[in-house]
Every structure is written in C-alpha cells, then in structure tokens.
Design brief:
Blueprint lengths: L13 H8 L4 E5 L5 E2 L16 E5 L3 E10 L11 E8 L6 E6 L12 E10 L2 E8 L5
Antiparallel strand pairs: 1-2, 1-3, 4-5, 4-7, 5-6, 7-8
Bound molecules: zinc ion.
Length: about 140
Amino acid sequence: MTARPRPVPDAASAGYWSAAAARELHLARCSVCAAYSIPPGLVCPLCGSTAPEYTFQPVSGEGVVRSWTTVHQAFLPGFDVPYVLVDVELAEQDGLRMIGRLLDGPGAELRIGLPVKVDFEDLGEGVLVPAFRLTAGAA
Ligand SMILES: [Zn+2]
C-alpha cells in the first residue's frame, strides 16, 4: 500500500504539528483579539487585523459534530476508503470549526450535536495527525 502523504510544516503551521506530535491540539490565537483561527490567515477573520501575530495555544479538543461526509473515492494515495470526515465546532469559541477524520469508522451513527474529542492518527516517525472520536458514552 502506498504511504499516506505526510504534513510538511511551515512557519504558519509548525506550532500545530509540533503539538500534535505530543498528542496535544494547539491552535493559532490572534495577538490582537485573542480569537482562535483555523487556519491562521494574513487577516484575522474575527477582528480584521491585517497584522495579527499568532501564537499557538492548547485547546481542549472537545466539540460537537456540525456535519459530516463519507468519502468513497480515494483522491490521494494511502487513504483507505470509505472514511468519514467530520466538521466539528470546537468548544473554545462559537463558530470555531475544524475538519478531521472520524476514527470511529464509516459505520458510526452520527447526528448533529454529537460530542467528539480530538484523537491522533500516528503515521509513524513522530508524525501524528489530529482527528476525532465520538466521546465515550455518546448515545
Ligand atoms: Zn483578531
């Protein structure tokens, strides 16, 4: 099987990937308004600052499912289909949305509002990718 593509951290994402390698979710936070931003852009989407300096800070990784899709077509090598992508609204901030794989698999029963928590896929050699799992006990 072909290996999955691996993330290539740059200056704007290094803090995210180094935290993920330690099984923590850190997100970029605007130096002007303290809002989190995914991904950090040249303009802060919340305060409109054109020169925000972002620092990566830890978040809980908890959120709720807003939407999801099941991927049946392998567009990139190394991804076994089918798999589920969830659109999660994180607990830290209204409208803070993050998309990731759902590690519970394509058979998971989903509905809007179900709680999830970040988990990590280990690609080996110290590379971990944030993903999500349904919170234990969710019904
Ligand atoms: Zn801002």
